[in-house]
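Before surveying the methods themselves, let us examine one representative protein, written as a sequence plus integers encoding its fold.
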Amino acid sequence: MKIKSLAFLAFFLILSSCSTGTSTSGDDATIDESWHGNFDGTGDVDDDPEIVIPCKAKCPICGKCLDPDCSDEEKCYDLGTRTKYSFYTGDHSVKVTGGNGGNITQVPVSQGGYIENWNNNEGARVEFQIIAKEDTVACFGGKIGMMPEPMSLTSTCDTYINGEQILSNSRLQGNSNWPYIPGTETIPSPNEWYNFTEYYVGCVRLHKGENKIEIVNPKRGAYQFNFQQIILLSDVSLTLGNASGYAEHECHHQNEDGKCTDYTCNDIKCLDKDTSSWVNQNLILDAKEDYVLKYSDTSENLWNPAQGEECIGYIDSGNSHQTIVWSFEASEETFVKVELLMSGGRAHGTAYNDTWDLSFDGSTFTTGAIAGANPDSDKWNYTMYNYSLIGYMHATQGKNTFKMVHKTDTGYNIRGLRVNNAVGTMSTAKATK
């Protein structure tokens, strides 16, 4: 019995050592494709376990999620049957008030519709008047510039709706493309300041009629975003009321081509004027010439003659009351169009009257014009020069003088002034203080 058992065991081992489904042909061996090792052949080999990302921020009113990265399908900001209303901070109907950091510039909607000098401006305030057709609950958000680190509207600013402070733990993600490193002097690319991104704070209650939305910068700090819009998702009609008291200008002197024919008006709505019948002499006042006065309280000449520069420079906080005086002779009384040859190449320009105290023949000159040379660019470029419209002036026969006195901390390089006239002829004249 013992011998038989050993023989049987040896026979079993020989059989089990022969792999089923194998064949030999010389030195090659091919494994049958039906062999799956430890895999039983059922299920999907591509199946991965589902990763569930929990919601980090929920709306305190509706309970739905505000976190765009979570797996929750119900979002507070889903549009559904609601209408999306966007209101620009640069709209004239929005009231803006500067704080300790100076005045705020409202860039027109046609130029981007945001506000400038919000950053580091303690006490600065933006106020919207929103008119609701009925009582409603709307999802409230905004478009703000992405900063290097996650940012929240309600934790960075004090936000009030009809006097009630709104708080939310919803945060806009940081922008990893920024080259700015906290604690260093590295300055971000200009484009990054205008990377406006949409995010939502949560639901708010609006009542029928006027609703006041106030956003206040509570501190001086470099970690403030650029601010373009507030957004409301509502199932009732919302309109922007007039919080600023600004009366929208209407042009009543348009020809059949839609161009203004009132040459005494320099409102931004009327700057597209009909000059088709003008002489257009194109008198160029070259800034480097001695007949153009260019000085400040600390320097008698702001001209930079360095090769590749060749401009009126130093128009910034380094000097005080930088002044440029341009004069020309007109052969007869005429309207003139005045344009500044300036650097910048930036679509998001600044209003001339916010940057300069302007006067013409001793009288204050106001204009709605925006200094921005290149509408196709978001970048400052101090080597790119283009003409930018200042406005239209009423010139008298004889000598006329246009004066610019700088009043802010920033500016641009200047190379000349161009003057076009309706009738007569013009020539350069020596400017005097």
Notes: Confidence is low (pLDDT under 50) at residues 1-40. Helices lie at 2-16, 153-156, 190-193, 352-355. Residues 83-240 form a domain with the Jelly Rolls fold (CATH 2.60.120.260). The chain has two domains: 83-240, 268-429.
